[in-house]
Amino acid sequence: MTSHQFHSPATPDLDAPRYAEIATFLRAPLATDLRDVDLGLVGIPYDGGLTNRSGARHGPREVRNQSSLTRKYHHVSRTNPFDLCRIADLGDVPMTRALSVEGAHDDISAFYDLVHAAKIIPLSVGGDHSVTYPIFRSIARERKIGMVHIDAHMDLWDEFQGSKFSHGSPFRRAIEDGLLDPKRVVQIGIRGAQNNKSGWQYAEDHGVTVIFIEEVNEIGVEKVLEKARAVVGEGEAYLSFDIDSVDPVFAPGTGTPEIGGITTIQAQALIRGLDGLNLIGADLVEISPPFDQTGGTSLVGASLLYEIACILSNGIAKRKCALNDLMQTAS
Hints:
Number of strands: 8
Structural class: alpha/beta
CATH architecture: 3-Layer(aba) Sandwich
EC number: 3.5.3.11
Organism: Phyllobacterium zundukense
Protein name: Agmatinase
CATH class: Alpha Beta
Keywords: Hydrolase, Plasmid
Strand order of the largest sheet: 2-1-3-8-7-4-5-6
């Protein structure tokens, strides 16, 4: 008879059957504190900034469920992100003022202040896209950063229904607050009609690089990546991925679907092609399980979360190696 010892559910066994163990992002261990974590996976169960179909508040929980299907080794790079750095699920942002957009954003910023102080690279799952703005208030307050933004929408509105903090406004607010350098922002996959031209005009006036879906299809992913890397440069940058960038054929579970989007293969290629950028964080937002009858959208989200974790962990490992080399040279 095999003898068994107690195995803490806070440290899932990545080799266990995929239907077993407590569901965490990418089957990562649950953090008990913020020590000894390089890459922190965070859920933001908030969708009070939505302008249409609600439900993204349930995104983090369902992406954790679908994360049970993820595995360790990437089939292209043959690397395991868990071998490259210390990854942990930090749980969900504690919400104390969820019925107030500004209050909820303060809750989010307060949590990311702790994450930033602990020098953890955050990889977040929303939630609606308004959550990126309070993340920026924490991790970008010392200097302006660049951004690769993959989305169907520009999210550069000024206001909606009297609010300046909807999911259509985060990057306009971040630019106004000096958190985001518009000339180092590239938006990929933008499409869909608008009720006014203000977002497009704001991008033109402030030097935001916009790659509409028609250009993506015309020049291909490789050329898009060349353009994106040239815009962002070597400075610190952030990746924000809205699931509605993916065509609703593949990802119908979202609040503002737009036909004619990128495929899941293009999404994977875009993320992989950002490897090597100086990324200080990333998020995946707008997954809405109530509109995702088969769970397919959340599976797409979990799979893309893994892709993002791979490039972030590789960047962390390279920075650690460079720092060690520098310290050895100095000594």
